[in-house]
Amino acid sequence: MARPSPNDILEWHYVLEGSDGTPFAGGYYYGKIKFPPEYPFKPPSISMITPNGRFITQKKICLSMSDFHPESWNPMWSVSR
């Protein structure tokens, strides 16, 4: 689930539910997506807030669809609510 912040349309918050059969099962993991003012022409930054053993909290996540790899960004990608 992902929703925009009520105070800033460029900041979204998301929750991921841990998948069954994984060490993350039963957990809920909170994160943040920050869109640049130039979106969709520039990619968002994505970070985790909940400690999870996989990603460092408050640090940008290395994804082809994030500003960690802006050269991979495709403006056709979008966020679903």
TrEMBL record:
InterPro entries: Ub_conjugating_enzyme, UBC, UBQ-conjugating_enzyme/RWD
Highest taxon in the source lineage: Eukaryota
Domain UBC core: 1-81
Pfam families (alphabetical): UQ_con
Protein name (record): UBC core domain-containing protein
Organism listed in the record: Nelumbo nucifera (Sacred lotus)
